[in-house]
Amino acid sequence: MKYNSMKRIMLILCGLSFASTQGMAQQKINQDSIRQKMQWFADAKLGIFIHWGIYSVNGVDESWSFHNKKISYADYMNQMKGFTAKNYNPQQWADLIKESGARYSVITTKHHDGVALWPTKENHFSVVKNTPAQRDLLKPFYEALDKNGIKRGAYFSLIDWSHPDYPGFLKDSSRYKVADNPQKWQRFQRFFQNQINEINKAYKPDLWWFDGDWEHSADEWQSKTVRANILNLKPGAIINGRLQGYGDYETPEQNFPVTKPKFNWWELCMTTNNNWGYHPDDTNYKTPFEVITIFADAISNGGNLLLDIGPKEDGTIPAEQVHILKELGKWNKKHEEAIFGTLAGLPQGHFYGPSTISKDSTTIYLFLPGQTVGNIMLKGLDNTIKDIQVVGTNEHLQHKIVGKVSWSPIPGLVFINVPEKAKDPYMTVVKLKLDKPVKLYRGRGGLS
Ligand code: GLC
């Protein structure tokens, strides 16, 4: 082989390996910066979701009621006349959210019905222009959140069934097909990009909660551009996973993951009764005990809970929802160290209940399911326990190691007797301080 061609090959090879290490380094930087920006979210654990819109006037399903033809589109939009926001007290909302223990809150800036809660400059519906509320409802809410140290979240529906340039409308009829009228779709793209930019500039959300991506592809939603525009203005902004592959975390809805989801970050969004928006006929509320049990399960599996409330048209929050948030707040306050800023708990099989682990891994928090106290058992803990305390009390407990065989390295079982007097009305939490970072035996027993 001639020297020149050898040199060329060498150069190509060097170039390749340089390019790939550069690619890897780039990937690492992206990973690290994503981890960094996701840290507050991972620590936050609880967010409050707010579905507020004209659907609260008659208490019908948000947007879906006309889409699914439960009521006519005209009747649905007629609710605009009754949306007053006359008792809206954003500071009270923010105070209740704070009291619940939540660290972020996500409000519907616009649902699939297309009615914006802010003064959009686009030629389309808004509560400012089309309802007696006549004002920007987002600004004072976000300011109240800031005051309380709660992160700003913006729900934004990509779908806009009211917009004349949007293809979808009722469940069995649509206006046109994108392929048949690309100009019309492009007009819609300009419209939604403008609305997103308006929100971005005016309120700089810490978190974007897109919805409705299922109706179109990433290309059609220009997901890449949406993401880039958001991050250009606010590099630390977090984007949920409903942007056709361009989001930062998963959003299981209403259904509970049974095993720990694989994705790094996830958030369960869940209603307090069966509906997102205000629905006076829906009295099927979850009890505070149920909400707390679900919340503990989410954080044990490394996720967050985004718990929804649906205020009335005048801005008051239904009493049942206030009650849930307050009770949850009491429990959160008492058990703060076991919840916020912790990591996902023990893998399944070690303890029959949810758990979390402190960031330095030297403390385990065991959440006693179903309000049980009494004898609890922990398997495969290869640590010395320094201290056991019932969280939020001065109660310190003893433990017994059962079944430890002197010649075997396999740890014995830990039994802890939790007395009745230490019981929390909702869920008791026991804290185990260890000698060193948690070490688990994951073998099959016997000699292994
Ligand atoms: C669904 C629904 C919507 C609701 C949302 C909240 O995607 O379309 O009505 O706002 O879930 O997660």
Automatic annotation (TrEMBL):
<dbReference type="InterPro" id="IPR016286">
    <property type="entry name" value="FUC_metazoa-typ"/>
</dbReference>
<protein>
    <recommendedName>
        <fullName>alpha-L-fucosidase</fullName>
        <ecNumber>3.2.1.51</ecNumber>
    </recommendedName>
</protein>
<comment type="similarity">
    <text>Belongs to the glycosyl hydrolase 29 family.</text>
</comment>
<keyword id="KW-0378">Hydrolase</keyword>
<feature type="signal peptide">
    <location>
        <begin position="1"/>
        <end position="25"/>
    </location>
</feature>
<dbReference type="InterPro" id="IPR017853">
    <property type="entry name" value="GH"/>
</dbReference>
<dbReference type="InterPro" id="IPR057739">
    <property type="entry name" value="Glyco_hydro_29_N"/>
</dbReference>
<keyword id="KW-0326">Glycosidase</keyword>
<feature type="domain" description="Glycoside hydrolase family 29 N-terminal">
    <location>
        <begin position="26"/>
        <end position="336"/>
    </location>
</feature>
<dbReference type="GO" id="GO:0005764">
    <property type="term" value="C:lysosome"/>
</dbReference>
<keyword id="KW-0732">Signal</keyword>
<dbReference type="GO" id="GO:0016139">
    <property type="term" value="P:glycoside catabolic process"/>
</dbReference>
<dbReference type="GO" id="GO:0004560">
    <property type="term" value="F:alpha-L-fucosidase activity"/>
</dbReference>
<dbReference type="InterPro" id="IPR000933">
    <property type="entry name" value="Glyco_hydro_29"/>
</dbReference>
<comment type="function">
    <text>Alpha-L-fucosidase is responsible for hydrolyzing the alpha-1,6-linked fucose joined to the reducing-end N-acetylglucosamine of the carbohydrate moieties of glycoproteins.</text>
</comment>
<dbReference type="Pfam" id="PF01120">
    <property type="entry name" value="Alpha_L_fucos"/>
</dbReference>
<feature type="site" description="May be important for catalysis">
    <location>
        <position position="269"/>
    </location>
</feature>
<dbReference type="GO" id="GO:0006004">
    <property type="term" value="P:fucose metabolic process"/>
</dbReference>
